[in-house]
Amino acid sequence: MKATVLIPAAGTGRRMGGSVNKQYLELAGKPILAHTLTLFENHPQVENIYVIVPIDDIAYCQKNIIDRFKFNKVQRIIAGGVERQDSVRNGLNAITEDGFNQQCRPILIHDGARPLFDCKRLSALIEAVEESGACTVGVPVKDTIKDVENKTITGSPDRSRLWQAQTPQGFQYHLIMEAFDRADADGFVATDDASLVERLGHPVQMLEGDYRNIKVTTPEDILVAVALLGGRT
Ligand code: C5P
């Protein structure tokens, strides 16, 4: 079955500073969000895409991203929420309303701020979702990670077990809906979607991605993203 993609891009970009929403910054001649959408627009296993932006950006996004770059697979632009999890929830509700709610349909959730995902990995991700229900891409951490409280280290987890979670993260429709319903009922909020499925007790596979798939978050990320995109074009 073909996949549906949700692109949460409704963050405020607080850590970027400046007044322009980061996903509209142009890198290598194209806004970040347009780079991200191109990855999925061109993939044969993607049926449709939902883009989630702040409510006040919907008209801007339609005109300057979707219409300008002629993205045919964008089903709808949805208003985001306060937290990332609220934004994704709004996207899931839209999928349900539009009838793309077959139990096993792969739902892929990918940050709008990650324009450098290598789409060659998408087929493997979808296959893992079909087989096991839930899978995320990620990379082993390179640095030693510390737990810190009040500026003092309280723990040093074993690095050989630590991975950085990236997106896309993919889930069968019934599983991600159950995970969100449970999180809502419990008032649980997390910074990624896999966390919600993990707490159901359902295993989530880790598919090794690559270090280029950065999330453009702070100003120095722009320099890295320009270098990496430049190398690609
Ligand atoms: O805040 P964070 O860096 O985790 O954001 C990851 C992605 O989630 C970004 O693409 C951002 O635009 C999106 N987001 C959202 N709604 C929010 C906060 C973040 O769609 N309320």
What does it look like?
The protein is an alpha/beta fold and about 230 residues long. About 35% of the residues lie in helices and about 25% in strands. About 40% of the residues are buried. The structure holds cytidine-5'-monophosphate. Cytidine-5'-monophosphate binds near residues 10, 83, 112 and 191.
Salient structural properties:
single chain, 233 residues, alpha/beta, two-stranded antiparallel ribbon, 7 helices, 24% strand, globular, binds cytidine-5'-monophosphate
Topology of this protein?
Elements: E1 3-8, E2 26-27, E3 30-31, H1 32-41, E4 46-53, H2 58-67, E5 74-79, H3 84-97, E6 106-109, H4 122-132, E7 134-140, E8 147-149, E9 152-155, E10 163-172, H5 173-186, H6 194-198, E11 205-208, H7 219-232
Parallel strand pairs: 1-4, 1-6, 4-5, 7-11
Antiparallel strand pairs: 2-3, 6-10, 7-10, 8-9
